[in-house]
Design a protein that fits this description.
The complex is a heterodimer of chains A (about 700) and B (about 130). With about 700 residues, chain A is an alpha/beta fold. Helices cover about 50% and strands about 15% of the residues of chain A. Chain A folds into 5 domains: about 110 residues, Rossmann fold (3-Layer(aba) Sandwich), CATH 3.40.50.2300; about 90 residues, Four Helix Bundle (Hemerythrin (Met), subunit A), CATH 1.20.120; about 120 residues, Rossmann fold (3-Layer(aba) Sandwich), CATH 3.40.50.2300; about 120 residues, Response regulator (Rossmann fold, 3-Layer(aba) Sandwich), CATH 3.40.50.2300; about 140 residues, 2-Layer Sandwich (Alpha-Beta Plaits). Chain A is globular, with a radius of gyration of 30 Å. The chains are: A alpha/beta (about 700), B alpha/beta (about 130).
Chain lengths: ~700, ~130
């Protein structure tokens, strides 16, 4: 066998970069030649063919891309890494990959650890490590992920192989090692489960200690005690794989360290931060312990849970039958007050409301109350058992995905439950799994699918940007080693992008080494899972990160108003329009504008506008049907998109909205409470436009005309 | 051959039971090392004198006698000279790292750690020499 070629050519006109890259590579034992221009590079190439070339995008005279195309005329296999100061768009990426056959695109400034890590995946370092990567056992590739039963099967399989005399000695060694790894990982998993049981207690202890310290700021002993507890939680929770909890504890520790027990002032800000960490940490801990208790019981959750608010002795029998048919977890309550109490305790996915019981607060108010306490837009079904007269606008605005008359049957109820399941699914969380291994992708789908998470797989990371726009995921699972762009680069790319930087990224890595992990976090990863990925672990981590995302920091949700952002609304509306045009259905976009929005802060004091926006978002979420889209299209402008409804119905629904809005008063910084006016306008598909943008423009122009009057 | 290959007995010192359990699982599960546990500096000194381990992993922040103090005491015992000591800490600032190295520690394992890669991390520290 010939000796490995360790010669790397670095081409960059920037001396600092050349030196840095050169030093880094030499430290790993590579042979490095530095070139300042394409001309020098070509000369160096002629002298000796390198194993790898690292090329800067911008070079004097002949730029990096041109140089690569020249090289490709004669050498189609040389691995080439392109470094660039700016991220390229999708087209450039495609061109780099397909035409120029670039192995990797790296963004400057480089992070040393990432840089080396990425390059070592292309050519292994010569000196320090033996060429065989012992950790990356090929068996992992065949069986990349293991759930609890698979662990037993795998061990059985390994034992069989070990017993077989035909197995090669080296193979025996490797199998033994693998068996140990699987067994250890399984043992750790169990330890983790019992650790979780004590986690709420440990966190509670920390919470109490902080409370007491805050009340007695001059007591150094208490301060030290709280510090110690934070420190401990940080070390243990993190080591048991609960990185988020560890991070909150770490922040608490850091903030506590900056609290000066002697100081008289300026401490409030720090305490506010500490309390915030405690509160957020508590949410995460609650979530984790809930996951753990529920995940052991069942993986296949019922498709939907539902609270029925119906008169006692009514049609409970039909309801129960329907719940069975529709795979629905049903709970029944006999009064609206009881319903609100139950909703406070349990998060139901949907509700059936008999309108005869919804009179305490006025019509459809119970629906609003339930959504308020659920903190999300649950699908609703109304039963009009008193045969009252309702207009379509009443129903749409009230939020009913289904309206049943007094003659309810098992069949009609079960159909209603199914419709609500579908309506609820429009809000399902989305996970994008970026991995070139189809086995892993299908495993992820099989684990996350049944619990109501929509999974999309991407095996070519280079088209990531297109995919992000199209799919708008709430979370990313990212493999590290992939052709074209490594996971680290994908992560950095997303983190540099305003639209996507909030999306949590979980790395899936077969390297359990500390360096890979560090690199994952340096790149901006939220968490990582080591391969083989365990089913329970995957589920609980994804859920934990998703719950955080969906509740507050999702890129699809506008922070102030908790409705879709303008870009998310455009995408979702586009999808809905496609469906409507296929089914020859109507669709109406309604725009709600806060009148004189830019004047609010000036007239009523700081944060007035923010407050009004928050309240309007809240009202929109409490009203309308679960399947309708709500979004914020500009500072003071919102849109509601309703499939199957005409402009007339939507206008009437807006009149009802106006009625609710006129009851709302906002606190003013100037002392008096104030009210804000709303203006409305609509555009109907296909009559007034055939895509979202056209419809939006049409509706907005209607708004202008009206305000001109 | 790495130094780590010569290791048979390891003494792991940490006041937190959860950490002791997890580290022991990772080490005993993935290597042939026998891991003995101690929950305090004082217990560590007693056990080290008795067992003469090939490696000591020492938590820095412990109530009573902390990690660095324990190391100082261990270094005074003649029969225990030359045993490599690795610190485990959740707070690793550069100046502290230097301090620990000056005290004769072989290296640092930072908390939180990954139990599955703990043996490799230790190997890495020991092979650096």
């Amino acid at each position: 066998m010939s000796e490995q070629n360790n010669y790397i050519l670095v081409i960059d006109d920037d001396k600092n970069f050349r030196d840095l890259a050169g030093d880094l590579l030499k430290s790993r034992g590579y042979e490095v030649v530095l070139a300042r221009s394409a001309k020098e590079a070509t000369a160096a190439m002629e002298a000796k063919r390198p194993a790898l070339a690292i090329v800067d995008y911008r070079l004097p005279e002949v730029d990096g891309m041109t140089w690569i195309s020249k090289v490709r005329e004669t050498d189609s296999t040389l691995p080439i890494v392109l470094c660039t100061g700016n991220w390229c768009d999708q087209k450039t990426f495609n061109w780099l990959r397909n035409i120029l056959k670039v192995s990797l695109v790296l963004q400057k400034p480089i992070v040393p650890e990432l840089f080396l890590h990425s390059l070592e995946n292309i050519i292994p370092p010569p000196a320090n490590q033996p060429p065989v990567a012992v950790d990356e056992t090929p068996v992992f590739k065949v069986q990349p992920v293991l759930d609890s039963t698979q662990i037993e099967e795998s061990i059985e399989q390994i034992e069989k192989l070990l017993a077989d005399e035909g197995t090669f000695p080296e193979e025996v060694e490797r199998l033994k090692k693998l068996k140990r790894r699987i067994e250890t990982q399984n043992a750790i998993k169990k330890a983790r489960e019992s650790f979780v049981k004590n986690l709420p207690e440990a966190w509670g202890e920390l919470t109490t200690a902080i409370k007491v310290t805050r009340e007695n700021p001059k007591n150094l002993l208490l301060h030290q005690g709280a510090l110690g507890l934070a420190h401990k939680v940080k070390g243990t929770a993190g080591s048991y794989g609960f990185a988020k909890v560890g991070q909150f504890a770490e922040r608490i520790e850091d903030f506590l360290l900056t609290v000066d027990p002697e100081a008289e002032t300026e401490q409030e800000v720090i305490w506010a931060e500490i309390i915030r960490c405690v509160v957020e940490g508590t949410q995460v801990v609650d979530e984790i312990s809930r996951e753990q208790t529920s995940s052991t019981e069942t993986y296949k959750l019922p498709s939907i849970s539902c609270l029925a608010v119906i008169p006692e002795g009514g049609y409970t029998g039909s309801l129960k039958g329907a719940a069975q048919d529709a795979n629905c977890e049903l709970d029944v309550v006999g009064s609206s007050v009881g319903a609100i109490v139950k909703f406070g305790r349990q998060a139901f996915d949907s509700a059936i409301i008999d309108l005869s019981l919804d009179t305490t607060f006025g019509h459809f108010q119970l629906a609003r109350e339930l959504r308020q306490s659920a903190k999300r837009i649950i699908p609703l079904c109304f039963v009009n058992s008193k045969e009252e007269q309702f207009s379509q606008a009443d129903i749409v605005y009230g939020g009913a995905s289904v309206l049943l008359d007094s003659d309810v049957t098992r069949g009609s109820l079960s159909e209603a439950m199914q419709i609500m399941t579908v309506a609820g699914q429009m809000r399902k969380p989305r996970v994008l799994c970026v991995d070139d291994d189809p086995l892993l992708s299908s495993f992820v789908e099989s684990v996350l699918g049944p619990v109501g998470i929509v999974v999309r797989s991407l095996n070519e990371p280079i088209v990531i940007l297109d995919m992000m726009h199209e799919f708008q995921p709430d979370l990313l699972l990212l493999d590290v080693i992939m052709p074209g762009l490594t996971g680290y680069e994908v992560c950095r790319l997303l983190k540099s992008h305003d639209d996507w930087k909030q999306v949590p990224v979980i790395f899936l890595t077969s390297k359990s080494d500390a360096e890979g992990k560090r690199a994952a976090f340096t790149a901006g990863g939220t968490d990582f899972l080591s391969k083989p990925v365990l089913m329970d672990e995957l589920l609980s981590r994804v859920k934990a990160h998703l719950s955080k995302t969906l509740s507050e920091v999702s890129t699809r949700i506008d922070m102030q108003s908790k409705v879709l952002t303008a870009s998310a609304l455009a995408t979702e509306s586009g999808n809905l329009l496609d469906i409507c045009s296929q089914q020859s259905q109507l669709l109406t976009i309604g725009i709600v504008s806060i009148v004189d929005f830019d004047q609010l802060d000036i007239r009523h004091g700081a944060f007035s506008a923010e407050h009004v926006v928050g309240k309007l978002g809240e009202l929109l979420n409490q009203r309308f049907r679960a399947e309708d889209l709500r979004g914020r299209i500009a500072d003071g402008e919102f849109a509601v998109v309703l499939a199957g409804e005409d402009a007339d119905t939507v206008s009437k629904a807006f009149e009802l909205l106006k009625g609710d809005w006129e009851k709302m008063w906002f606190p003013s910084g100037r002392g008096q409470e104030f009210q804000a006016d709303l203006a409305f306008s609509t555009a109907e598909f296909p009559l007034e436009g055939d895509n979202f943008d056209k419809l939006k423009v049409y509706a907005l122009s209607g708004l202008k005309q009206r305000s001109a009057l | 051959m790495t130094i780590a290959a010569d290791i048979k007995n390891v003494l792991l010192v940490d006041d937190d039971m959860n950490i002791r359990t997890l580290a022991q699982m990772g080490l005993e599960g993935l290597t042939d090392w026998k891991v003995e546990l101690a929950a305090s500096g004082a217990e560590a000194i007693a056990k080290a004198t008795e067992l003469k381990p090939d490696l000591i992993i020492l938590d820095v922040m412990m109530p009573g006698m902390d990690g660095p103090t324990t190391l100082g005491e261990l270094r005074k015992i003649e029969t225990l000279q030359g045993i490599p000591v690795i610190f485990m800490t959740a707070k690793a600032q550069t100046h502290e790292l230097e301090l620990y190295q000056k005290m004769g520690a072989k290296g640092i394992i930072t908390k939180p750690f990954d139990p599955m890669s703990l043996p490799d991390d230790i190997q890495g520290i020991l092979s650096k020499g």
